[in-house]
Sequence to fold (265 residues):
Amino acid sequence: MSSGTKQTSTTVSSGGSTSTSTTTTNPYQEKYYSQLLGQAHNLYKQGLPEYYQGATVAGMTPDQLQAMQMTKDYVTGGMNPNMNATNAAFQQMLSGRVDTGPGSPYGDMMDVYQRQAMDSAKDMMGQLRQGQVMSGQFGGSSRGDMMNNRVIEEANQQVADAGAQMYANAYNTAQQQQANALGQYSSIMNMPMEMYKNMYNRVGLPQQQLNQAIMNDAKARYDYAAMAPWQNLAQFANFISGNMGGSTTASNSSSSGGTSTTTVG
Fold:
């Protein structure tokens, strides 16, 4: 009998007669089990494959690092020049003050008013001098000086009146800007943070996710190739499990005797 053959005998005795049933199973896959065990032994001696040696975690992208640095600079006060200029303008709005210095809109307009007034005054004084000559009053410096002074005073008064009106308008505008700035302070100050966050999440993060997907794919390919012999062996074991291709035969016999039941496997 082959080492893989299994035989089961059942004997039933009753009323002086004995009946024996014998079942013989001959497995077909015995030689394949030998191959399976041999290959399993070889793989066991080789040991499991070493762990994947490539990178498995994608680092932050340059855009993410830049966004983080800009966020840090903004929070700690080390803003870039553009942000410093924006912040300075916003602080000016919060102050409610009117900038009247050189180069400011107010200062520029005052220069324009001053030039226009002086040009008008010069024209007026020229006309007065011409009128004096034509009326035979040429040389009357005292009267002419008084009239010239009057023209200059009028010109200066016009400039002062225009400046006062313009300052009042600018002051009212500044107060309105201050009120608006106070209401928008939180959102305005958070705008750079939102910009940096968008740069991190909408620019840097997709790049990082793509890099991570590439790494995951490389590791999955390595793991598949490294474990292929083990997976192949497991599949082979599944294919030859059970009584694959084997045969089973049964036989019966009877005789007279005592009463007993015996099963031999």
User: Anything to note?
Assistant: The first strand starts at residue 6 and ends at 14. The chain has a mean pLDDT of 74. The beta strands are 6-14, 17-26, 247-256, 261-264. Residues 86-205 form one domain.
